[in-house]
Specification:
Length: 295
């Protein structure tokens, strides 16, 4: 591929069928990307060459299991483009199997790998989803993963725009709070459990607040256990983040969970982002607090 002085920004969106790739592609189109859906992997190099020669500024491409026959070669193609100096970001959208089954059932869409002639359509759908996971496993390992299981479309659009804007830096840290009762985020590289810490939920005046509110923050900051947990998480990350960057990691997602995802995890995520944001690009996601508001 010929190099050009014009450094076109390319984003490849891939992931599970039903995980929100169309929403993500639309979000990028809203901020000025030229978007192409379902580009066959065999055409990737030629398409990239064309757009660079035309000096396109920002291009987003959606590629998924609809091109199943050519998927095995896609990781190699992406690696080659990166080695040629292409400004390339890869996003992988994922969701739990139960979530995907529900979405396909609600929309009555047929999964690209489903067998229409199967006697048990539910079983056929689950099998198709698990087969898709196997086909996309290598691509997932190479990408920034977004778990959309509990994310509304508006949240997903916001996350995609924010993360794509951050990927021009050496490494991006995503700190995410969550509730264990609703499951561990699938996109987490590291998970810290803080359910053993003092819980503001049992203080009536603090219950309707979140860890971003000053009274909750003051309550937690007064606890020796909370301070110890905070220092230990900071110490772990401070030691290993430089190693991850030397290993050419572009994104690291750190998830901190408590029971309801409203107080302790939110407080610590905010503290981590403020602390590490002076050295790295730090982004914050509050899965429950942002989704449900207070409560």
């Amino acid at each position: 591929m010929q190099s050009t002085e014009h450094n076109t920004e390319f984003v490849v969106i891939t992931g599970m069928s039903g995980s929100g790739k169309t929403v993500a592609l639309t979000a990028l189109e809203d901020v000025g990307f030229y978007c192409v859906d379902n580009l066959p992997p065999e055409l990737l190099e030629s398409f990239v060459e064309l757009e660079r020669n035309q000096q396109a500024a920002r291009v987003a491409i959606a590629m998924d299991v609809r091109s199943a026959a050519a998927l095995p070669g896609l990781p190699r193609r992406l690696a080659k483009l990166r080695s040629d100096g292409l400004n390339l970001t890869t996003l992988f959208l994922d969701s739990t199997t139960d979530t995907l089954v529900r979405r396909f059932s609600e929309t009555r869409r047929l999964h690209p790998l489903s067998l229409q002639t199967a006697n048990d359509q539910h079983r056929a759908l689950v099998d198709a989803i698990e087969h898709e996971r196997e086909l996309l496993a290598e691509l997932r390992e190479l990408a920034l993963v977004l778990d959309t299981s509990l994310v509304r479309p508006a949240q997903l659009r916001s996350q995609v725009k924010e993360l794509v804007g951050a990927t021009q830096t050496p490494m991006t840290l995503v700190f995410e709070s969550f509730a264990f009762k609703r499951g561990i985020p699938m996109d987490a590289d590291y998970v810290f459990d803080v359910r053993m810490l003092p819980n503001p939920h049992y203080e009536p005046e603090l219950r309707p607040m979140t860890g971003r509110d000053a009274p909750v923050a003051a309550y937690l900051a007064a606890s020796d256990d909370v301070r110890t947990m905070e220092d230990q998480i900071k110490g772990f990350l401070a030691h290993w983040l430089p190693h991850l960057m030397r290993d050419h990691r572009s994104y690291v997602t750190v998830a901190i969970g408590c029971t309801g995802g409203q107080h302790r995890s939110v407080y610590l995520v905010e503290r981590m982002a403020a602390h590490f944001g002076s050295q790295w690009v730090a982004r914050v996601r509050h899965r429950e607090a942002d989704h449900w508001g207070k409560g």
